[in-house]
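Q: My labmate handed me this sequence with no annotations at all. I'd like to see what the chain might look like in three dimensions before we decide whether it's worth expressing. Could you predict it?
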Amino acid sequence: MNAMKWNAIFVLCLGSTITFAQNKNKIFPPIASEKEVVHNLFNLNDDGIKNHFTINIPGGDFLLVEFNTLSDWRDTGAFHNVMAATSIVLDKYKESLRNQLSGKSIYIHIPISGQPITSKFTQSFDNSNLISIEGTDASPLKIGMDTIRILKNIGTKKTDDGVQTVQIQYTFLLRDINRFKEVASNNEWKLQTATILDSVVLAYRKKWSSQDAWYHRLYVNYDPTAKDQKLIVNQKVREDDKVFPEYDMLTVSTGFGASLIRNTLCPSVDFGLGYYFYSDKQILTFTRLSLYTFARFEERADKSFETFATSFVNLEIGSESNNKNSKLPFYSTSIGFGYKLVTKEQINRDPSMSYNMYRLFFNYGLTKSIMITPEFVTNFKTKEKSNGWFGLSIKVGLF
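A: Here is what I predict for the chain of 399 residues:
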């Protein structure tokens, strides 16, 4: 037996997951505790829950529906299926639900295929000694609400972190958990609820150009028990994702890069002073004054090199946005106009230059530090021979 080598034995216990390696006589630490396993099994994977629906149930109870992104809501018939599956699970626990004073919670996990369903039942008697006294009569008192939480797995999707399970979480808050049968048999309420869930999601899919953009937050309150079936929808920007300061600011920036000028690759440098205007949205507008210089090298007859440096003073306006989790392919954009700084000596040395040279450019920021700039330089002469060229620059910002 000692000669036998076991690669690994995995034992899944109720309290933890333990890995054994007999050939090294070593027991490794638990991979996951019972608390972690249960949490992951019965709770929505919190990638920043962005969509919240609160729906009143006749009799003073509530339903909460939560999911991460609008695209996670896929099956318009999902709500009816969830109600049916929950009724089956509660029927299995009917003998445990008789005590009307205990606090009860049932957690249900429904996989993508619909089977098998996993559930967990907990019961608390913390407040079993509470009584209500009216005159000479005393009766037991229950405070708090019972909970039924259903985690429905819809499918999978690709994210930056890999493949993620798409989930919808339904939470019923009931004064008595046995009232769920009454709720499940209320076909009118179920139809109203399913219709609201589908219609609001579809409406905001059309309203938002990018339905899963990081900045979208949806909070919906619906009361089908009210005479006018009151619906309140609030859309917000997630506060903890704000990355811009809440005030105007003056900045200094510089960067180095390369410019393609007349089929010649030239080193370039940029130094600027910018002013950013505060906005309560996730977009900052700015204006910037900068000095941009590129250098060309030409080989002389004696094999030495002569340097031609050209500088433009520029004024630009643009905006920056936080593109975290967004499909927008840019961080910042701006347009600008520049005027060439030149001396008579430079013109004599470099015939391609003239006194009045202008630069039109468009900055396209892929990230906070990488900028691509297509540009056009000209003297705008029409009667005389015009000096002008198209160029392309890439810059890496240092600060």
